[in-house]
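TASK: fixed-backbone design
INPUT:
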């Protein structure tokens, strides 16, 4: 290395990578962006078994090659972003924690280890930072690091995802066609307001209206198993006396997800608490309007 070249920043990044959930998605995009600067070395420490690999998605080859890869020296920082969080001191490096929290106050058992062991907390939004401050965490530790979106993928030109309304007892299988499509993306949890959305949709529309509610659920077999609106939605989707609902719980690639946005007319996310609400940003990048509560994360 020439004397004029700066020493690269060496990072260990602990958290899921090749998994279909939002924390892994954030980890991948943060690490991609850092590697693209040309000024960082990253060793990835995955915390979950992979659900897909670089052979499936060539864009991830660079990340795949960094799994447990040795660094050229001691790590400058060790970044943890997974759930549940782990507060043990890393073997080396500055301890950075990324842990969104949407409930107004941190769990009491987290506060002391964060204050004593964590050097910095990267917060998705000012709202998350305010939660940490309200919990007694020193403001000097807290830094807002907003999430982003890949506009090469999420844009108005993304090919629409092909969506059909499956038949109930006497309904014919049909395309969503000219119907006005409301889209919801994310776990169908109480915190995310999925019950509010369902109640409002059923109250506002009937089976005779040219509308459709498209629900892209997530984590139904893993992190959100048994704590979502899955069974209620499936029952409503099969009831011909109700306005149509299309329910998707399969894992989708980023390009397929972008196609859901361009297949819809608007995104509806009536959350009770959100640390960021990445689907809102993805929908806006795809060119569709967003309906969210006032006073959300900023």
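OUTPUT:
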């Amino acid at each position: 290395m020439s004397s004029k070249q700066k020493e690269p920043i060496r990072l260990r990044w602990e958290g899921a990578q090749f998994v279909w959930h939002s924390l892994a998605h954030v980890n991948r995009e943060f690490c991609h962006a850092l590697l693209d600067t040309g000024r960082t070395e990253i060793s990835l420490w995955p915390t979950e078994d992979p659900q897909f690999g670089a052979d499936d998605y060539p864009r991830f080859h660079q990340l795949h090659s960094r799994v447990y890869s040795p660094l050229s020296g001691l790590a400058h920082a060790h970044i943890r972003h997974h759930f549940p969080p782990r507060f043990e001191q890393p073997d080396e490096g500055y301890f950075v924690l990324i842990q969104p929290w949407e409930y107004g106050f941190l769990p009491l058992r987290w506060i002391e280890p964060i204050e004593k062991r964590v050097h910095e907390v990267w917060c998705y939004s000012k709202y998350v930072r305010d939660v940490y401050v309200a919990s007694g965490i020193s403001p000097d530790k807290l830094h807002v690091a907003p999430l982003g979106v890949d506009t090469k993928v999420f844009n108005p030109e993304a090919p629409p995802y092909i969506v059909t309304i499956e038949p109930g007892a006497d309904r014919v299988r049909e395309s969503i066609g000219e119907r006005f499509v409301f889209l919801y993306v994310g776990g169908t949890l109480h915190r995310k307001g999925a019950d509010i959305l369902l109640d409002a949709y059923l109250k506002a529309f009937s089976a005779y209206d040219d509308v459709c509610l498209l629900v892209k659920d997530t984590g139904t077999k893993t992190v959100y198993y048994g704590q979502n609106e899955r069974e209620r939605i499936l029952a409503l989707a099969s009831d011909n006396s109700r306005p149509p609902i299309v329910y998707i719980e399969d894992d989708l690639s980023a390009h397929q997800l972008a196609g859901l946005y361009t297949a819809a007319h608007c995104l509806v996310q009536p959350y009770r608490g959100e640390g960021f609400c990445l689907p809102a940003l993805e929908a806006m990048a795809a060119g569709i309007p967003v309906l969210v509560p006032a006073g959300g994360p900023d």
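COMMENT: Residues 9-144 form a domain with the Rossmann fold fold (CATH 3.40.50).
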